[in-house]
Structures are given as C-alpha cells and as structure tokens.
Amino acid sequence: MLRFSQSLLSRKITMSKSNTSTSSDQTVEDNRIGPFVIEPKYDCPHLGDRAYILLQSDQTDENQQAPCNDCQNTKENWACLHENCSFVGCSRYQQKHMLKHHETTGHNICLSFSDNSVFCYGCDSYIDSPQLQGLNLQLSRRFR
C-alpha cells in the first residue's frame, strides 16, 4: 500500500434514510485532512513498456512546486509523465488544468508534486509498478 498526504479532501457524501435518523436524504460536507492510505492499481495497461522519469524542467525542491502552466498556481500540482511532455497542471481541487491536459492530449500518467503519488486518468486510479522504480529513485534523491 502507498501512504500519501492530501492537504484537504472535500467531498460530498449523500446519506440515505437507512443511514440516518432523519426522514429525508441529506448531503453532508465531509472535510478530511490526511494522511490517507490507498491501494494502488498494479496492472495499469497505460504504462506501456518504458521506464518513467521526471523531466529536468519539471523538477522542484521540496519547498516550491513548479507552477501550473495555465494559471501559475503553485499548490497541488501534477507533472505529466508522458514521454517528452513537460506539462505541469493544477489538481482537480484547484482549476483542473491537469485533467484538461489529459482530456485534450490523451496523456494518462501524472505525478503529484504534493505527495509523489502517480495517477492514471485512463484507469482512474493511483498506480504503482516496477516501471516507476527509476522515478521513485529520482524522487528520493531529490530530497536528500
């Protein structure tokens, strides 16, 4: 299992009558602060057969994330890991520029600068694979 922190996860949970003592459905705002434990997908078909690394232009230090290419936001950004792509976009909890990049290019695999997790839009899942070992090594050296 991977463990990662997420600064703020805000999602709506709809509670049914059977789960509450009230007589009508209600929506409750559920704000949670990490860390969260996730179970990544280990057989992502979108990884292909190449090794993954973070392009030099996308590298950051631990105190500063690379800004989003579209809005210059420096919170919760993601780096596209598609070969020869250096796009950095903000998360779906900001202005969703990484999601829009995926939708327009078909680039599925991206890395979170917030917690170094890898996400596949094609699988709609966090992923892990031996093909990401080089990336993990590169990230561990970055913060020594």
How are the secondary structure elements laid out?
Blueprint: E1 2-4, E2 9-15, E3 26-32, E4 36-38, E5 77-80, E6 88-90, H1 97-105, E7 109-112, E8 118-120, E9 125-127, H2 133-142
Antiparallel strand pairs: 1-4, 2-3, 5-6, 5-7, 7-8, 8-9
Summarize it.
This protein is α+β, with helices and mostly antiparallel strands and 144 residues long. It contains 2 helices and 9 strands; from the N terminus they run ββββββαβββα.
Please, could you describe this protein's structure?
The protein has helices spanning 97-105, 133-142; strands spanning 2-4, 9-15, 26-32, 36-38, 77-80, 88-90, 109-112, 118-120, 125-127. Mean pLDDT is 76; it is low at 1-30. The protein contains 2 helices and 9 strands. The strands form 3 sheets. It has a 5-stranded antiparallel β-sheet with strand order 6-5-7-8-9, covered by helices on one side. The chain has a two-stranded antiparallel ribbon with strand order 1-4. The chain is globular and about 35 Å long. It is α+β, with helices and mostly antiparallel strands.
- Kindly state the mean pLDDT as a whole number? 76
The share of residues in helices is 10-25%
End-to-end separation in angstroms reads 23 Å
User: Are there runs of 5+ residues with pLDDT below 50, and where?
Assistant: 1-30
Radius of gyration: 17 Å
Can you summarize the main beta sheet?
5 strands, antiparallel
> Based on DSSP secondary structure assignment, what is the total number of beta strands?
9
Q: How many distinct helices?
A: 2
- Read across the widest sheet, the strand sequence of neighbours is 6-5-7-8-9
Percent strand: 25-35%
What is the N-to-C order of secondary-structure elements (H for helix, E for strand)?
EEEEEEHEEEH
Structure classification: alpha+beta
Shape field = globular
